């Protein structure tokens, strides 16, 4: 099969009826164009062009070959143009995966505003606490609000951070001794995220001090919505994001325990699989996400 680049060169020469004009159009030296034409003719075993000092004309075989090649090459150029335009123009479907905690009104309001600004973009939203394989599931971007996820080759852009506080409802704390040290949590009921057999470990820090505490309790869940609900209703102590409970602490609905202790800083990332060729729809979304003042994480 002939080299497609050589075929393209031939079609350009046939369209311009000039090797020099075709060379300028292709941004190639005239000598290279002439050489590639000779290679193509040798490959096909026919003369495609008649060359004179004034012009270039097609032979009968060249005319037939040109008529067969012109339409497919035009379609290929159009396909390339559409793809390039898609990279530069914010349009098309953006498939994203977010945890259940982002299914609440603040994030949905953000998406609504984004779609109004970018009406040519469509969103296919996956709400799940599982971290999906971006390549296998054809996901453009994910926002995992937890530790433990992995990327295959690089560090994605950080959009904020999360810090978790040890909190409980006043109802739970009635007639119970308040914890003074992290180790005191062992004797309390705790409401946990992603525990096994209703047991897990909480990693807390206070300056340079660190503590890993084994906790247990009556309820474990896989999303913060249900964890916070059971903490609010007095079923135990929870480890909740600061942005998730600051207002409740201020109003007295929750009490912060061990105020000198918290979780270590948890970075929040927007994760995507290909950083080399970002489609415009993803690029404008990442910019909007970075500018958004999310109530669910702290901006750096």
Q: Can you describe this structure?
A:
Strand 3 (92-98), helix 5 (105-117) and strand 4 form a beta-alpha-beta unit. The protein has helices at 4-16, 19-26, 30-44, 60-88, 105-117, 170-173, 224-232, 242-251, 280-291; strands at residues 49-51, 56-58, 92-98, 121-127, 141-142, 158-162, 164-168, 189-193, 199-206, 209-221, 237-241, 255-257, 262-263, 266-269. With 300 residues, the protein is an alpha/beta fold. A 7-stranded mixed beta sheet has the order 12-7-11-8-10-9-13. It folds into 3 domains: 4-88, Arc Repressor Mutant, subunit A; 92-159 and 268-291, 3-Layer(aba) Sandwich (D-Maltodextrin-Binding Protein, domain 2); 164-263, D-Maltodextrin-Binding Protein, domain 2. The longest helix is centred in the first third of the chain and has 29 residues, at 60-88. The protein is rod-shaped and about 105 Å long. The mean pLDDT is 86. It has 9 helices and 14 strands. Helices cover 38% and strands 24% of the residues.
In short:
With 300 residues, this protein is α/β, with parallel strands linked by helices. The protein has helices at 4-16, 19-26, 30-44, 60-88, 105-117, 170-173, 224-232, 242-251, 280-291, and strands at residues 49-51, 56-58, 92-98, 121-127, 141-142, 158-162, 164-168, 189-193, 199-206, 209-221, 237-241, 255-257, 262-263, 266-269.
Label this structure with key terms:
3 domains; Arc Repressor Mutant, subunit A; D-Maltodextrin-Binding Protein, domain 2; three-stranded parallel beta sheet; rod-shaped; alpha/beta; 9 helices; 14 strands; 300 residues; 38% helix; seven-stranded mixed beta sheet
